[in-house]
Amino acid sequence: MTAAIIAPSRLRHRARLGVRIGLAALAVSAFGAFGTPAQARGPEGIADVAEKVIDAVVNISTSQTVEAKGGGSNTMPQLPPGSPFEEFFDDFFKNRRGPGGPGGGKGGDNGPPRKTNSLGSGFIIDTSGVVVTNNHVIADADEINVILNDGTKIKAELVGVDKKTDLAVLKFKPTKPLVAVKFGDSDKLRLGDWVVAIGNPFSLGGTVTAGIVSAKNRDISSGPYDSYIQTDAAINRGNSGGPLFNLDGDVIGVNTLIISPSGGSIGIGFAVPSKTVMGVVDQLRQFGELRRGWLGVRIQSVTDEIAESLNIKPPRGALVAGVDDKGPAKPAGIEPGDVVVKFDGKDVKDPKDLSRVVADTAVGKEVDVIIIRKGQEETKKVTLGRLQDPDKVQAAVKTDEPAPEKPVTQKALGLDLAVLNKDLRTRYKIKDSVKGVVVTNVDANSDAAEKRLSAGDVIVEVAQEVVSSGADIQKRVDQLKKDGKKSVLLLVSNADGELRFVALSVQ
């Protein structure tokens, strides 16, 4: 069974009492099948932490009006994929379908709009009624309610969300004094430290689980600023948005994702660290949105081959593949081919480091950016702009139409190369602003094919020198071979003018 990354929330509540009894009976076997191995007894302080903070942890109840499909109220509840519950509910609802069954109508007919309910978790950070949770817990909700530990249900309003870190801030008017929790320092966490998770797993109500910090700074490719705390504390569906505490009772993370083949905890859960959460929450409370710093560059990793080509030892930093003409980096003198190794006094080990530190830096702040250019360090002063987030994804332009054969001007590095002319621009839909040598074919067994070069790519520079013909490229490659270089660094553009660096073997 394939494991999946799941946001552990939004277990639907639509089953009747009889179904719930069946669910309870099946839950015993389900937890037996998918539960984590028994852990050693934890520190006695866990009970003290739970007693101290439990009243600050809330359930988040949302409702949404959706278009009914396939028989209105007969719709089956959402359940963990592959769980034993699925077969039970499938049989239950299958027996009720049909023209004469509850809900009526034919199997494929759409019924009237209906409301669906879901539950997640959250926690109070201010006694005035400010709550932190996950964005995916409240996304698309028509109505949001906060349910306190004593069962009090109060309508809440949305203050702001940040989709990139999956965080949201809510506000409600308290009817009595509240308990609030404070943030701790997630940077001080060590591997093996005990942590406590409190939330609403499987919509059972407030539940406490404990475990240890399994890893820090996890990048699971769920967003541009991934830096999760990994824990084996049991986190299940409904825990999304709930707090992860240290043994001082401070929030050091927000439980957000799990990896699981079943939808239940297998001991691999992820929390957004408090260092990230605090910055996001402060901005959402102040502005209702995120105002992130913007450098105005496109970056990529410095591979061993690229590092060898640029004479950078050891490989490190973020390679600038492109500079926005209207961005802050342009007037500061940052150019494609520069490698950023330090930003505002902070070391940059890889592109993710640079993305995070730039995003966390105040808009309008002047910072020192240390780059490596042609083997030498230089310092550039940059005044950060503001990152605009239109939430649009632009796809590269490609054509599936077979192109007529054209004479090949030159062969080099496993590539067929030609001078970029009007016909080739039309064939590959290459913008007029793109200059260089166009690739018309790639040897399937070459290093170029492995590095995903393809017909229609345009080679702009070779070893940081502009080229305009296949002969120029071959000349540069021959010289690098004589100099004993193992690889050559190409600056490659796609049809839209987006640049990237590619290192190819010259051996």
Task: Kindly report how far apart the N and C termini lie.
Answer: 43 Å
CATH T-level fold name of the largest domain: Thrombin, subunit H
Fraction of residues in helices?
10-25%
Specify the structural class.
alpha+beta
Named at the architecture level, the CATH assignment of the largest domain is Beta Barrel
Counted up, domains total 3
Shape: elongated
Give unreliable regions as ranges: 10-39, 71-89, 92-108, 391-407
Task: Enumerate how many helices there are, as a single number.
Answer: 11
- Outline the biggest β-sheet: 7 strands, antiparallel
**Oligomeric state of this protein:** single chain
Q: CATH class of the largest domain, please?
A: Mainly Beta
Strand content: 25-35%
Task: Determine the mean pLDDT.
Answer: 79
Number of strands: 28
Rounded to an integer in angstroms, the radius of gyration calculated over CA atoms is: 28 Å
In words, what does this structure look like?
- This protein is of the alpha+beta class and 507 residues long.
- It has 3 domains: 1-27 and 44-65 and 118-290, Thrombin, subunit H (Beta Barrel), CATH 2.40.10; 293-386, Pdz3 Domain (Roll), CATH 2.30.42; 410-505, Pdz3 Domain (Roll), CATH 2.30.42.
- The protein has helices at 17-34, 45-53, 84-94, 135-138, 274-287, 304-310, 329-332, 351-360, 422-428, 447-450, 470-482, and strands at 4-6, 57-66, 114-126, 130-134, 143-147, 153-162, 167-172, 194-199, 207-218, 228-231, 243-245, 251-260, 269-273, 293-294, 297-301, 318-323, 339-343, 346-347, 366-373, 376-383, 385-386, 410-412, 415-419, 437-442, 458-462, 465-466, 487-493, 499-505.
- Strands 22, 23, 24, 25, 26, 27 and 28 form a 7-stranded antiparallel β-sheet that branches. A 6-stranded antiparallel β-barrel has the order 8-9-10-13-12-11.
- A hairpin with a 2-residue loop joins strand 25 (458-462) and strand 26 (465-466).
- The longest helix has 18 residues, at 17-34.
- It is elongated.
- The two termini are 43 Å apart.
- The active site is at residues 136, 166, 240.
- It is found in: Periplasm.
